[in-house]
Design a protein that fits this description.
Structural class: alpha/beta
Strand order of the largest sheet: 4-10-9-8-7-5-6
Order of helices and strands: HHEEEHHHEHEHEHEHEHEEHHHEEHEEEH
Number of domains: 2
Shape: globular
Number of helices: 15
Radius of gyration: 23 Å
CATH superfamily of the largest domain: Type I PLP-dependent aspartate aminotransferase-like (Major domain)
Strand content: 5-15%
CATH architecture of the largest domain: 3-Layer(aba) Sandwich
CATH topology of the largest domain: Aspartate Aminotransferase, domain 2
Distance between the termini: 55 Å
Oligomer: single chain
Largest sheet: 7 strands, mixed
Length: about 475
Amino acid sequence: MNKSTTTDTQDITKDFTKEIRQKDQAHFMHPWTIFDVYKTEGALPIAKADGIHLEDTDGNRYLDAVGGLWCNNIGTGRREMADAIADQVMKMSYASPFVDMTNIPATELATKIAELAPGTLNHVFFSCGGSTAVDTAYRLIGYYQNCRGKQQKKHIISRDMSYHGSTYAAMSIGGKKGDHPAEFDYIQGSIHHVTAPKKYGQFNEKTDVEFLDFLITELEQKILALGADNVAAFFAEPIMGAGGVIVPPYGYHQKTWDLCKKYDILYVSDEVVTAFGRLGHWFASEDVFDIVPDIIISAKGLTSGYLPLGATIFSEKIWDVISEEGHGRCFAHGFTYSGHPVACAAALKNIEIMEREQLLNNVLTLAPYFKEKLETLSDLPIVGDIRGQGFMWCVEFVANKETCELFPEEMDIGKQISNHADAKGLIVRPIVHLNVMSPPLTLTKHDIDFIVDTLRVSIEATLIDLTEQGYRYE
């Protein structure tokens, strides 16, 4: 009787999973849909989430080492987050943010962010996520330059392999080749890219000092080629996220910041990933890299993914210019959901939890162990580089460790490994040659052990697959 009931339950679960997959394929177009794969394989349907774990519709449980999408900093399913969101819904679910109306959560959150942000970054423009926060920064930069009579100062410099979001301006500013398929259009002529600060596999022959000198010289030459009077801003992630967790050489951000000051160029720090604890600090720009940018962009960890919210945080210098009296100016930009009271209430509660549970300190305490544990994977024949900081890590896989030769892209080696990890209860993010990890900040040493040990056996299983496929690695 029990056996029959169990079988019936399993059959019902499988039927439900099949139904969800079919509905999903028929109607839900996902971000970054790879059509040929999606039409045949579909998507993994997640039914539940609790803390650092996910559960699919078949009841399989996974440790989510991706942290949602760099965002589940306090973990999922927190009762006090649900209560704070519900309380705000009942008190006031929405209020217009336009012109001369405000709401208490948005005002309190802007004040809190200004308190946490470095320097004189005391002004906050809320949007719906990281991409819209980048687009807001892009428009703010042009507005600022026009207000100060620098109408020609409109060119933007970013980096190859960078990711700044998926809206029109944000994707144009980003420099990942895979995110620029020919079928899409992008802003042309005014956005430029310089070399990403990734030494491994590209500039191995250079010393760190030589590589840094090359990067800084290239940026200055780009500024001079465009004309400093034409360059409005430089965009940089403190650590490049989706481009492959690229940690720049020591002194890189200080020297790029110095160039921006020298040539009157705004420095924009895209901290959508690195802010709110991922590197063990509220913001990484000053506390980790010793710079105070003109603009900081944040989202993701701001609410730990409980509700969508982005923030463009900018300096008194910019505010003083754009708000100067006597011009009758209007900043004609915004969103229906700018400063949404429920999203802002969620962010305030999220920050409160992070402060109370000392999650920043947890990252600083465990990051060295995470690094040490991951580096034990370096004995595996296809593990080329292990890089990262805080709770932001990446393993890069290569076909030849001596030459850093990559596997053919169509092999999707990162996906092969992550498929094995899925089957063993671990979710890591595959990006072609990479496995990326950005787990919740609540992680323990035991969790780190599980992540790395499971990743090891997943890589070893992939090595067997490669041998069976007749593929040689060195």
